[in-house]
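Here's my example:
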Amino acid sequence: MIRRKLEMFTSNRRCTLLGVGPMSLNCVNAAIELANEHDSLIMLIASRRQIDSEDFGGGYVNNWSTERFAKYVIHNDKKGRVVLARDHGGPWQNDTERKARLSLRQAMDSAKKSFKVDIESGFDVIHIDPSIDIFGQPDVNEILNRIFELYEYCWTVSQNKQRKVLFEIGTEEQSGSTQHIDDLAYILNEVDIFCKKSRLPKPTFIVSQTGTRVMETKNVGSFDSPVRFPFELPAGIQVPRILDICSHFGVWLKEHNTDYLSDEALSWHPKLGIHAANVAPEFGVSETRALVQLMNQNGLKKECESFLDLAFKSGKWEKWMLPQTKADDTERAIIAGHYVYSDPRFLEIKRVVQSRLTNVHVDDYLKEAVKEKIYRYMKLFHLTRP
């Protein structure tokens, strides 16, 4: 059983579990290899924009559908050390639903179809996040009602398919501040009432604000800040209080937006008892930086400029920028680089680069660059071999 597997592993290692965003084929391969090499557990946390079912046209990562992605990971994970997880599943969590401006009922039904394929394909963890609404900002009670509907649906599907799945719930994006204790207690109490009334298992993870937020290529939240945020307790005081609430309700704390934290801040995660933490864009950026460096070092200026131009024109950097950013076009392109890895124009650039580099296998080089970044988190989270 997946829950027992996680409990035994975390108990033995006294660790913080790592959720790796599958930013590219090389990133997925890096995570699989590290999990198997260190006899560790790594969660691959796929958002719907990255990877979705065949019916939704797949996602931007390796042109994978949910079905093909799951088959690839399960086949290559020889020791069974990778936990497949859906990240931010819910209505309007993919571009198709947003562009079509689906109604709430249509978007909820669409999300259910996506979840059903997740469960059928072998996903172990389902993150239910209905906090996005293209028509306004629903209050916490409306979000909870949507969680309950999707939760019950996913549980029914998992029972019908004889699949054991764990649930993660989250009601908002990371703000960079810590969550108010009363808000978290209210959410968990309502979830507890719902699960008891419906005779459903409790969620395994709750996403809570711990003071992390990624913008550009830095973490701008309070967790790692040397300066106190106004009207906010430091993470070292507030996070233990969050963990106490989680413990009271029998759920594990899952931190999102853990990218770019310092070694010291990361080392505090297992010490504080944070159960799990997600990292995603940093790994995509690290691969892009390695590719740009490789091209520049080998005189492939034309190919490098073509790639950066393609990435910049994608516009995928826009949501990551600080309000008064000083980032230039190259920095913006690097932030957006991984979004175009499946674009035929990029694949042609990469083919040319590989043809010019006779002593370097480009994908192996990039995979090792990403492995180095993932390994840093594994080491500081106590996920490497003792």
Residues 284-369 form one domain. Strands lie at 17-20, 42-46, 82-89, 125-128, 166-169, 205-207, 214-215, 218-219, 252-255, 276-279.
